[in-house]
Write a structure and sequence with these properties.
single chain, alpha/beta, Rossmann fold, nine-stranded mixed beta sheet, globular
């Protein structure tokens, strides 16, 4: 059961609720946080999506702050919920390792708690008069929700993935080569240091296009959280499962930039491309996540397509709107 809803840092129209998850291996408190935005009464009655709930899950080294994305849904009558996973953003507690997780399956608890707070009974996905559920994930959140949906068939009515991290940047061959080394280190040195791979260029690109607000300290560092072998092993296991093929059990939309750019040195082209993932590899991997998958490539989009410049952002929303018209 969730705690009471209280005002959120995003201001008017947004509330948050803390979701107790028990304790970690060291006995420290674990929580997730769900943020909600409820549609205006007129949209709630007349909007095309008035019988829909949306659950958003953020990416790595991130938290929910995309108010425009929430308004897209609430303007159409949907109830919008966003989940800050354990050890991220609103859910990060002093002394915790940011982003810490040993298996992406662990997030099932966070997601179940958020859905319960939204009034969804996962034990009765076919209950009469239930509201439809759309799950929406960005980057690592897209990988997490892909695997979650495949493990919980029938719960989600549609799956929307915004540049989902479905494959490692070095490709399948590179992933298979490093996985045994990463897994061995995860067992013996789970929190060991790893090389910094994020040079801060993606954050700079978002600031250049003026789509990134100021974040509370520690919630979204410019170069991301430090990574550890245990976390990387969890990600690689997720990639391995996707490569073998999964079925999210619902129509899926995958939104991607039209191109990638290598983030070795700053390049102004990074303001109109994905500087995090290899989008061609992600597009190929997306064909393995379900029976009905729509892949939309958005010219000029950033890694988070909804934080791009105005024109590609509008194209991303148009692709999303078009997809929703095809889903019953």
């Amino acid at each position: 059961m969730s705690e009471a809803w209280v005002p959120d840092i995003l201001g008017a129209g947004f509330e948050q609720s803390t979701l107790p998850l028990g304790a970690d291996d060291d006995g420290a408190e674990l929580v997730a946080t769900v943020v909600r935005s409820i549609p205006h009464p007129f949209a709630r009655l007349a909007g095309a999506l008035r019988d829909v709930d949306v659950l958003y899950v953020h990416g790595w080294s991130d938290y929910f702050f995309q108010t425009e994305l929430a308004r897209f849904w609430t303007d159409r009558g949907a109830r919008f919920y966003a989940l800050d996973l354990r050890c991220y953003g609103r859910s990060l507690r002093p002394g915790q390792v940011a982003g810490d997780v040993r298996s992406l399956d662990d997030y099932d608890v966070d997601i179940a708690a958020a859905l319960a707070a939204a009034g969804h009974d996962m034990a009765r996905p076919d209950a009469e008069n239930r509201r439809k559920l759309v799950v929406l994930g960005h980057s690592t959140g897209g990988l997490t929700l892909t695997l979650w949906a495949a493990r919980h068939p029938g719960v989600a009515d549609a799956v929307i993935l915004n540049s989902p991290w479905l494959e490692l940047q070095v490709g399948a061959v590179g992933r298979q080569a490093i996985a045994p080394l990463v897994n061995a280190r995860a067992r013996f040195d789970p929190y060991g240091a790893q090389p910094v791979v994020d040079l801060g260029f993606y954050t700079r690109a978002q600031r250049e296009v003026q789509s990134l607000p100021e974040s509370p300290e520690g919630w979204r560092p410019p170069q991301g959280f430090p990574t550890h072998p245990a976390w990387l092993a969890a990600i690689l296991e997720g990639h391995r499962r996707v490569a073998l093929g999964v079925d999210v059990g619902a129509p899926a939309l995958v939104l991607l930039s039209a191109r990638s750019i290598l983030p070795t040195t700053w390049n102004p082209g990074m303001t109109g491309a994905d500087s995090v993932l290899v989008v061609d590899d992600i597009a190929r991997s997306a064909t393995r996540i379900g029976r009905t998958v729509t892949i939309a490539r958005v010219d000029g989009a950033l890694h988070d397509v909804f934080l791009s410049r105005a024109e590609p952002r509008a194209r991303a929303y148009a692709a999303l709107d078009s997809f929703l018209r095809t889903v019953d």
